[in-house]
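Comment thread on ticket #2218

A.B. wrote:
> Attaching the input chain for the structure job we discussed in standup.
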Amino acid sequence: MAARDPKRTLGPSAANGEGLRSILPRVVAAAALWLVSHMRILLVEDHASFAATVASRLSREGHSVDIEADGATAATLLQHKEFDLVLLDVNLPGCNGFEILSQMRTAGNETPVLILTARSEVDDRILGLDTGADDFLVKPVDLGELAARCRMLARRRAGQVRNLVEAGNFSFDRGARLLQIDGQDVPIPARELQLLEVFLDHLGRVMTKEEVAHRLYTFEEAPNLNAIEQFVGRLRRKLEGTPLRLQTFRGLGYIARFDEA
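C.D. wrote:
> Ran it. Output below, let me know if you need it in another format.
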């Protein structure tokens, strides 16, 4: 059996005097991973290994990440699909990142954009920010910092969205990703949890089955729309007796709303 690493001990006798106080920032950082809800992210990056590494990190935090290596294809995709966040490289085949960003903002697309580039010149950063970028990171990037900046942009866009949603006997803590009914924890699978977050982010709005699937799945996952019906049905059963209603409109889609008191 391998010897325990004394640096992982949480007591005051930890190696190098590392106690609870020194470990607390790491605990806070870990908790911060869940302070925003599930996001659909488009990563526009032509370096396959780097893109895979970034997507893996963000996927572990509960997000759906689509990767596109070609700038022209990404520009077209952004004209027809909605994302919560775009991570955008600058040097791309087909169309560079600044051109994609300019097209987005000209079309009125206000999706948050974080520029990723190996170009560290100040003029490039100024150009990106003036074109409408929300943030800028120079490669090589620290994955922890990248993830934190993604959360920051998500919180900024969410604005007044609260971390705790409560109505009657219903309570959902976005930070802990915890559903409670009548004060009792309700176990919920990951996909249904993401679905709940999607509905809470779009209360009172009719969402088509395709829109729901777009929020839950990446392009590579090829979602079965019949599975969406099953997820909605299972989630609806879990919410029975609460004021949160998931209504189905045949031929239109779904709408989530709270019953008025």
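A.B. wrote:
> Thanks. Noting for the ticket: The longest helix spans residues 143-158.
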